Amino acid sequence: MKPNPVGWFEIYVQDMPRAIAFYEAMLATKLEKLPTSDPETWPDLEMWTFPMSDCSEPTYGAAGALVKMGSCPSVAGGTLVYFSCEDCAVDAARAAANGGSIFKEKISIGEHGFIALVFDTEGNMIGLHSMK
């Protein structure tokens, strides 16, 4: 297995406009609608991607999207995704200011930096990681 083996992630949501607004505000970024490859097979599928590089560019980290699909509910306690940021305390505060909540304030993880854990507007717990 290669280092940093995650190649893609999906965060399932129930209210896409609310989830987009939350993640764009918390991460200070813009999400982009991902066209559905087969609308007949997946009529209730809606995906919005986080900023990502072209597949031809080797970069650090994994690409992913918010996903709304009737058969896949959002639930707390599923896979935990960590977003890299400059200062996880700042992003955690933005999460709380935009309809989410802070589960664990910024804490040190020693030489690996700091983390904070927050809930998004859909009930998903997400991690925030920074080196300062």
From TrEMBL:
Give one GO molecular function term: dioxygenase activity
Pfam families per UniProt: Glyoxalase
Question: Which residues belong to any copy of the VOC domain?
Answer: 5-131
Q: Which PROSITE patterns match?
A: VOC (PS51819)
Q: Where are the transmembrane segments?
A: none
Q: Which UniProt key words apply to this protein?
A: Dioxygenase, Oxidoreductase
SUPFAM superfamilies according to UniProt: Glyoxalase/Bleomycin resistance protein/Dihydroxybiphenyl dioxygenase
Q: Does the keyword DNA-binding apply?
A: no
Q: Which PANTHER family match?
A: GLYOXALASE-RELATED, VOC DOMAIN-CONTAINING PROTEIN
List the protein's name.
Glyoxalase/bleomycin resistance protein/dioxygenase
Source organism of this protein record: Thiothrix nivea (strain ATCC 35100 / DSM 5205 / JP2)
